[in-house]
Every structure is written in structure tokens, then in C-alpha cells.
Specification:
There is one protein chain. The chain is an alpha/beta fold. The protein has one domain: Aldolase class I (TIM Barrel). Helices cover 43% and strands 18% of the residues. It has ten helices and nine strands. The strands form two sheets. A seven-stranded parallel beta sheet has the order 1-2-3-6-7-8-9. Strands 4-5 form a two-stranded antiparallel ribbon. Helix 2 crosses helix 10, helix 6 runs parallel beside helix 7 and helix 7 crosses helix 8. The longest helix has 26 residues. The radius of gyration is 18 Å and the shape is globular. 42% of the residues are buried. InterPro entries: Aldolase_TIM (IPR013785), DeoC/FbaB/LacD_aldolase (IPR002915), LacD_aldolase (IPR050552). Belongs to the aldolase LacD family. Keywords: Lyase. One of its GO terms (molecular function) is 6-deoxy-6-sulfofructose-1-phosphate aldolase activity.
């Protein structure tokens, strides 16, 4: 599955690629629509956001009929100098309307910090799952770990497992996980780390590509699937390198399409081996 729901993070990518500052909202929307049109024929689903993508993607029917629409239902709250310091359910996303628009699922980002109240996270996820079910939509949660606010010692990989232990039994339909060890290291060690993660999740799970180098993301997908994952829901590993390209459509076709096709082939190969 393909993700194009990045918001301020995508704006920062354009800035890093040398785009004129400030980067207009239209640059994000245009890229998202273009990426959905060109890449969705090769993805089983496309994840889009309300802020900069959904309306125009629906208007232009940018998602291929062979692909499914997933809508982000998270509102990102900036703070402490970062674009996403906290998250809450986006009340502007109406699950019933999303279903009418053709969506099959909603996605919720859940920031996990060891020093924040787990009861609040669990309550938010429970509310989100109920909203999805009320509209006949699948629920996808995306726990992403962050260092504690109070400066405690932080082990990213241990936090990924702890987040899965807390949130992997919530009854959501799909768990979107960070890749242990960022996919780097000896094969047996990375596989064992993925197996630890799998042991904590009682629902199907997939990996995201943020934090994983694009050239090793295919290996990461393979190892995660060998440990029990069901695939990937990723964006950066597919299209980040073409952000800011002079001829974006051509680069999406020449660079991103083959990457996405190969990732799909890896998923198929792993499923066939089960």
C-alpha cells in the first residue's frame, strides 16, 4: 500500500530539495494527486490526507479503480519546534462521508511516549475504532514512538516493542509499525527483532518506510514478512527521491513505479512462501 498523507513533513522535503520558501500548499497537493494517478495502479491501496490531498484526489479521480482509498483521520498538532508534537482524532473527517466517497479504511497516527498516560492513548484508539466500525470502515492505527518529554533514556527499538505491547491488542483491523533497527544490521538480528514485534501484535500488521533507507526497504519488507507481517504501507521509500524533480511525472514513472512494483513482488513472494 502507498502513503501520500505526509503533510508538513512533505513541505520540509520540498524545502530540502531546493524549492522556493515558503512552499505553497498547492505544491503538496499537486504532488499527491500526481503520485496517486501514476502509482495507484501498482498499489492495493492509497493513503491520503484531508489537509492537502483528499478533495483534489477525489475530484480528479486520481486513485485507480483497482486500488482502494484510505483516509487519514488524524489531526497533527505542532509544538516544541516540530510539525507533529501531538495527535488527536480529526473531527473534520466524517467516517460516513469517507465511506460515501469510496474509502475502505481510516488511519490514525498514535504518538507513543513512555512518560505519557497510556489510558489516554488507549481511549483515543478505542474511540477511533468505534468511529470506523460505525461507518463500516476498517481501522488502521500507526503507533510511532518518540523520546519521553522528561528526558528519560530512550531506546527506539525497545520503545517500538513496548508500543506494540500496549496497542497491538486494541481490536483495530491493522497495525502500521515502524521497522525495527531501521532495517539495518545482520539478517538474523533484524529478523529476531521483527519476531519480537510480531509477538506483541494480535492483528495483521504492516511496516512503514519512514526512517528506513530506500535502498534497503525491500529487504526490510522481506524480513518483516518472514516474521509475520502482511506487507507495507509506505511512501518515502517509493517517492521521496523524486520530490522537487524538474520533470516529476517522468521521475515517478521511471523511478517510483519500478520501486513500488518490486516491493509488491516481494510481498507476493513472501505470501507464496507461507
Amino acid at each position: 500500500m502507498l502513503a501520500v498523507d505526509q503533510r508538513e513533513a512533505m513541505r520540509l522535503m520540498f524545502q530540502a530539495a531546493g524549492a522556493a520558501v515558503p512552499v505553497p500548499d498547492s505544491a503538496l497537493t499537486d504532488f499527491k494527486v500526481m503520485a496517486a494517478k501514476i502509482l495507484s495502479p501498482y498499489a492495493s491501496a492509497v493513503l491520503v490526507d484531508r489537509d492537502f490531498g483528499l478533495a483534489q484526489i477525489l475530484k480528479e479521480k486520481a486513485v485507480a479503480p483497482t486500488s482502494s482509498l484510505i483516509v487519514s483521520a488524524d489531526e497533527f498538532l505542532p509544538g516544541n519546534g516540530i510539525p507533529v508534537d501531538a495527535v488527536r482524532i480529526d473531527d473534520a473527517v466524517d467516517p460516513a462521508q469517507a465511506s460515501k466517497d469510496g474509502a475502505k479504511a481510516l488511519k490514525l497516527l498514535v504518538l507513543w511516549r513512555a512518560d505519557e498516560d497510556p489510558a489516554q492513548r488507549l481511549a483515543m484508539v478505542d474511540d477511533f475504532v468505534r468511529r470506523c466500525r460505525s461507518a463500516g470502515l476498517l481501522s488502521i492505527i500507526e503507533p510511532v514512538v518518540r523520546p519521553p518529554r522528561r528526558g528519560w533514556a530512550f531506546d527506539h527499538d525497545e520503545a517500538i516493542v513496548a508500543a506494540a505491547k500496549e496497542l497491538g491488542r486494541t481490536g483495530a483491523d491493522l497495525y502500521k509499525a515502524e521497522m525495527p533497527m531501521a532495517g539495518q544490521g545482520r539478517t538474523d538480528v533484524v529478523l529476531k527483532a521483527c519476531q519480537r514485534l510480531n509477538d506483541q501484535i494480535e492483528m495483521p500488521w504492516v511496516i512503514l518506510s519512514s526512517g528506513v533507507q530506500a535502498d534497503i526497504f525491500g529487504r526490510a519488507v522481506r524480513l518483516a514478512m518472514q516474521a509475520g507481517a502482511s506487507g507495507f504501507l509506505a511512501g518515502r521509500a517509493v517517492w521521496a527521491s523524486v520530490i522537487g524533480a524538474e520533470d516529476t511525472p517522468t521521475m515517478l514513472r521511471d523511478v517510483s513505479v519500478p520501486r513500488l512494483q518490486r516491493l509488491g513482488d516481494i510481498v507476493d513472494e513472501c505470501m507464496a512462501a507461507r
